[in-house]
Every structure is written in C-alpha cells, then in structure tokens.
Task: structure prediction
Amino acid sequence: MSEEPDTTEETETEAAAEPVETEAAAAEPTEAPEEAAAEPDVPAEPAEALTPKQRRQAARAVKTAQQPTRDPRTPEERQAERVQIRARKSAIRRVERQRARAKAKAQPHSHEATPPRERAPGVQKTRQGVVVSDRADKTITVRIDVTRRHRRYQKIVRKSSTLHAHDEANDAHIGDTVIVRESRPLSRSKRWRLVQVVERAK
Result:
C-alpha cells in the first residue's frame, strides 16, 4: 500500500518535469532569432587600449605594407640606368652651353675696367681737454668737459668723459690743457693723438 503512492508521486513529478522541458525547448528557438536580431544594435566590445608605442608600430606596419615594392634588379642594371641618365643630362648641358656661347658672340660686351673708387679723406674729430694722468709711457689721459643747455628744461648740464691719447714725446703733464685729434687705433684703448699743448699747468 505504501509503494503505490510513491509510484504515483514519481509519475506526477515526471509529468510535471516533462512540460517544463518542452516549454524550455519551445522557448529556445523563439529566443534565438530575437538575440540574432538584437546583436547589430548592441555595440561591440571596445578594443583593447593600445599604448602610444603600439599605435606607432601599427601605423608604421600599415605604411610599410602600402609602399610599392621595388623591382629586383642587379647592380649592373642599376649602374647602366645611372649611366644613361648622366649621358642625357650632359647632352642637355652641352646644348645649353653652346646656346650661351652663341648668345655671347651675338652681343659683345665692353671689357672696360671698373674705375677706381675715389677716396676722400675723412674729417677727423678734434677735442680740447685737461690732462688728468701722464703716468703711462707715451700716453696721456684727457678729461673732456662738455657744458650744454637741456633742450626742454633749459638747465645747464655738465658732463665729462675721459679718453687716452698718444703723446710721442711725453710733452703733456697733469693739469695741461691740450688739443687731441682722432686717429687710427694705436692700441686697445688709444684712438686719439696729441696735437698741441694749449696751456701749461701752473
């Protein structure tokens, strides 16, 4: 008596399980087309992020693949092509030279020499100042005092500058009023030459 209910329970469970399986089997084919139709709308998974170095390598590989391959030629063939190119260029140059010579013969030009440049002596500057040092041999230091009126404020402005002058005979001494004239560079600092001692120091 106890075994009969067990069999009925087993048959009930099997019957209950069979419709579930059939329902799942029936649902599977209907879901597959929906998934297939939905696939284009779903964005593809993002590609792996490449490092800058990997991007450069990929771009270089693409560029190399796009370059046309050179036809394999022997060194003798390449040299023969170079010789032909040189011969063609030399023929062009020869024609151009002949044309230039013919043009020069048709238009003779005068072979007059260029006249020499006229050299006028420059005006040398002259300054009057007071000797402030004569310690160096054949050299004096002269202070040049400049007094002028300011253009805007009309105030008297006094300014002084020093220069080194060449004194061949060591004639000038401290306190003398002298006249110096501009000259060629005589040393690193001397660009002036003593002309005259105007007044001796007292």
In short: The domain at 137-199 is CATH 2.40.50.140 (OB fold (Dihydrolipoamide Acetyltransferase, E2P)). The chain is about 40% helix and 25% strand. Confidence is low (pLDDT under 50) at residues 19-38.
